[in-house]
Sequence to fold (939 residues):
Amino acid sequence: MVVAVNPAANQAQEFDWDAIARAFEQALGKDRVVRRREELLVYECDGLTSYRQRPNLAVLPRTTGEVSTAIKLCNQWNVPFVARGSGTGLSGGALPTENSVLIVTARMKQILDVDLDNHRVTVQPGVINSWVTQAVSGAGFYYSPDPSSQIICSVGGNVAENSGGVHCMKYGVTTNHVLGLKMVLPDGSIVDVGGSVQEMPGYDLTGIFVGSEGTLGIATEITLRILKSADTIRVLLADFETVEAAGAAVTGIVGAGVIPAAMEMMDNMSINAVEDVAKTDCYPRDAAAILLVELDGRESEVSVNCDRVAQICKEHGARNVTSASDPQERATLWKGRKAAFAAMGQLSPDYYVQDGVIPRTQLPWVLEEIANLGKQHGYYVANVFHAGDGNLHPLILYDNAVPGALEKVEALGGDILKLCVKAGGSISGEHGIGADKRCYMPQMFSEADLETMQQVRSAINPKGLANPTKIFPTPKTCGEAANAAKSLNIKPIDGVEQF
Amino acid sequence: MTAIAPSLSKILPETALTPWDELSPDWQQRIAPAIAPGQTPQYLIQPETEEQLAQVIRQAHAGDRNVLICGNGSKLGWGDAAERIDWVISTARLNRLIENAAGDLTLTVEAGTTLEQIQTVLEPHNLFLALDPAYPKTATIGGIIATADAGSLRHRYGGVRDLLLGIQFVRADGEIAKAGGRVVKNVAGYDLMKLFTGGYGTLGLLTQVTLRTYPIPEAFRTVLLTGEKAALEKMSLAIAQSSLSPISQDWLSSELMQSTAQGDTTALALRFGNVEASVVEQSEEVRLLGQKLGLGLSVLVGKPEEGFWADVSDRLCQRTSPIDDSETVLCKFGVMPTASEATVQLIKELSSETKVRVNGGSGLGMLRGMAADWDGEAVGRLRSHCQSHKGFLTVLEAPAGLKQQLDVWGYSGNALPVMQRIKEQFDPKKTLNPGRFVVG
Fold:
């Protein structure tokens, strides 16, 4: 297997944290540095709470210059650093590593420039996703990527994880909306990549930084593309007696040339969970699956497509098709879907969300296989699914108080990922690899694939100080799971130890 | 030269290896502008399988041979001339369809497949690849990706980067690797697709690619608007503020319009592709808006509509003057979208014979002009205009003499060292396309 370049993290090194903290306080001011143990507690995990590690120090810079200063100090002391935005990520991308400085961008909250004529907005990384839309909605624009945590997640975090959302099918994910970045690289130097105009000559560094999960540096200014809001939005709800029928309807809709803004599916277990908890009275409890289809655009387009989608759903055996245009009625139809995760939380003491992708035409047999895996492992699995782009979110219900339950659930989650790969898909559609899935990377990628990706990391993060141990498997983090016994095939890098 | 041939002939069928002297004049002409003047490569190598290709690259790597990479060679004139090329390697015979997953809206093909072949495969499924690049009849998908060459359709469907989902490639050391996947949403691992898009073959040779496909719109309609500069600019802003959803929105210079026989003044061309009712309704709204602003207007439907866009692309691709066969230049440039019209104007002032297309949404454009008009000074003036509007200007095709005087790429940013470090990691011996790209 391929070994991550994590010299600093892996060396059994003693750090003088008092001296380091003083150096940061001196350079950035005391109000930028958090060093008391109890204050550091809030930073010990991100949205993936099953992994915890308290950072030794957290810094809260306000400017690009301060981020650069912080990273230069990390280089001086040879101490790893981890970037964190709002801490809502679900793969442990912002999980501190042992002996690390956490660089928190939460105070970098300025919207730096709004250029409506050119459809561009430039923000600092701590700006919350939904603020971007709020800043431009008065003029009839919005920022399209909408992860479910959009009211608290930061744009910087979205950039690091290449976040998605329910509306990616038609409009794409974060990377399709980022035009340029100001980056502080892992050596503390500052570069501008991309810009206000796309396709500058040279390598598309913006494209490689987006989704690199903080392993290639920290974005301190982000230029985004905004879109004009649609005139008309209509939501259809259809319910089906079999998952196959719902899956066939999805294929039929796409096959008819309709690209909905969003297309979501929920299975019977999810339907009953939300009806138990949210009591929307929208979703029939005996349906095997429901499909929510949102169409947007000009009225002339939406009305035609809406009729078509309704027709296709009926042809594929939908029992009822309801539609709504009024914002309040639309919200009612969406309510159950939006309450799905919370509902699981009430049905079961704990739940584990998986994130995998399959080619959407493989849906029926994959869902059946997921149910079988659940039975084999002894857990219920509910499925909420971005049906348009094949992004599955199986929810595994369990009780963390039962000793060993989390490990078992993680094993089931892992089997689901392997199934996604077997179906021709991916181990992550939008949550990222982070600390959570690095051991599954060899399921999807060969040694040569991972080695090639590591070349990018070696080029930009040669000392391995930026977010070590993330994305790539290491024997230390996944000895057995990733078959560490396999050959170690990586080019030696000067001054870097191999494991 | 004779020492190498036996080892290459061991791994390649005879038909895959052509000495330079035996190469058709057509191939020689295509290759010549990509190679430093006075030099000739030993062979054109056209492997038939990925494994053959990998073995050739392994030999090149081991024997310190420099290689020039191409598909069908339609754009070998783009970029700087390469230095000391031993072998030219074409992926054109890697042209198999791997999978057309119509229901999943993805297509996987070998990199030497031409765009035309791809569209032929997709059309019966009512799908298409939403790209209208230069040289659409001969360009391979590998070459289109390597040059990030998208045309007017980028307005709705994005650039090449937005359509590329997965890649497989042969690295500079001959190892085969991949990134991404065959699904439309995927965040596992680094997005190497982005580095290969517009990387001009300097990081590896693409062998297999997965792309996102789209349904062919049910109906098309194009509206051409002409008139006073101020009124046209108002129109453009009004469109940007509206919910109109054209799939293309281009500024076309008078010279380009003239060559398509659809007018003789600068035009704003809007192409709608949607359900029939919507293209009719949207064109009507544009007509009313245009009328209010006193703009001239013509509407194209059916065959003339399709023909018009093919013409725009063809005229921009035309390499020599139709009158006297004299040489031309082709440049790609970008400006802030609101500076699009001013850029068309400036180009007209610098050379009234130049054909220009600028996408109004992205501010990305192309110009085709006479080499006699576009000397170093004119290029320099236009480049500083583009840069003052946060953009760039790259000279793609030009006579060798002009290219030697100029920085062809016009990269003005501060990230060059980062690009060079990436190149150094991927291709430390500079085996692939040495000297062709921004990174040297």
Remarks:
- The mean pLDDT of chain B is 95.
